[in-house]
User: What shape does this take?
Amino acid sequence: MMRQAGRYLPEYRATRAEAGGFLDLCYSPAFATEVTLQPIRRFGFDAAILFSDILVVPHALGQHVWFAEGEGPRLDPIDLDRLDALDPTRLLERLAPVLDAVASIRAALPAETTLLGFCGAPWTLATYIIAGRGTPDQGPARKAALTHPAAMDRLMDVLVEASVRYLVAQLQAGADAVQIFDTWAGALDDAGFERYAVEPVARIVAGVRALVPGARIIGFPKGASARLPDYVRRTKVTAVGLDWQTPAAFARDHVQPLVPVQGNMDPLRLVVGGEAVDRGVDQVLAALGGGPLIFNLGHGITPDATPEAVARMVARVRAGGAG
Ligand code: CP3
Assistant: This one.
C-alpha cells in the first residue's frame, strides 16, 4: 500500500516519537528499517517500500526542508533565477543513511518479499521546491514554467540527473524495483504534461537502465487519466500505478494491454471499513483482475484509516474477492 508505514499504525507513531522528528526517522537506518518492517510483520504484504520521503532529494541538494507538525512539508522556496542554490555534488553522500537503510531492510526482509525503492518525479519535486510547501493547484510551479521556461528546463535537468544517481544507488543497495511518484502530474495541461511529466521521467528510465540493465521501474502519474497509454509508451516504465479516479474500463482496455497496472482502491474505504472495503476490493478485482495487476490503493493511506480495515482488505484480496 502507498504509505503503508504511517500514522494509522500505533507502532509507527511510537517509533516516530522515539526518533524525534520525521527527517530523523528518514535519516536513521535503524529507525527507517524498523518502520519499513512494521507493516510487513503485521500484514505480510508481498512488498515493502523503503521508508523515506521524496523531499530528501531537495534536502540533499542543499535546500532547507522541514516537517512542521500537522502542517506537512515546508521548504525555503528557491527562485528559478537562483538555481545554483541547488548543489548536486554531495547528493549521494547526504543520502548515504537512506542507502544504508535499503541494504539493512533487504537483509532483514524475507527473501520472497519485494523491496521497492522510490523517488519523486521532477515535476512533483519542482512544485515543492518552487512553492516551498504543498499548494492546492500547483499554481507557483505552473506559473514559473510559463514565465521562465529555460530555467524550468535547467531545474528538470538537475532533478533528472539527481534521480538517476539516487535510483541507481537504491537498486545497487538492494531494492528490487523502484517507483517514481508524480503526485501532481494531473495539474498540467497537454504541453506541460509532455514537457514536465513525460520527458523527464523517460530520461530517468533510460538513464537508470543504462546503468542497471533491465531495471524494473513503476511510474505513478497521478491524475494522468486518458494520458496513461501515451505516458507508458513514451516513458517505457515497467508498470504503472493508477489513482482511484481512473476509469476501470479505460485502464483495462487501454493500459493493461501495455503494462501491468498497480492500484487502485480509494484509500478512504480504509477509513470507513467493513462493507466499503469488501466492495472496493471486489470492484478492483472484477475490473482489473483478469490481467496483470498489483493490488494497491489509488493513493496513500490516510492517518485515520484503521489497521482492522487493512487486515480485512488483505484477507479479501488473498481470497480472490467475492469470487
Ligand atoms: O509509501 C511508503 O510507505 C513510503 C514512504 C513515503 C512517505 N512519503 C512517507 C511519509 C513515500 C513513498 C512518500 C512519498 C511522498 N512524500 C509523496 C509522493 C506520494 C504521495 O503520497 O503523493 C509526496 C507528495 C510527499 C511529500 C509529503 N511528505 C507530504 C505531502 C507529507 C505530508 C503528508 C501527511 O499526511 O501529513 C509528507 C510526510 C510523510 N511522508 C509522512 C509519511 C509517513 C507523514 C509524516 C508523519 O507525520 O509521520
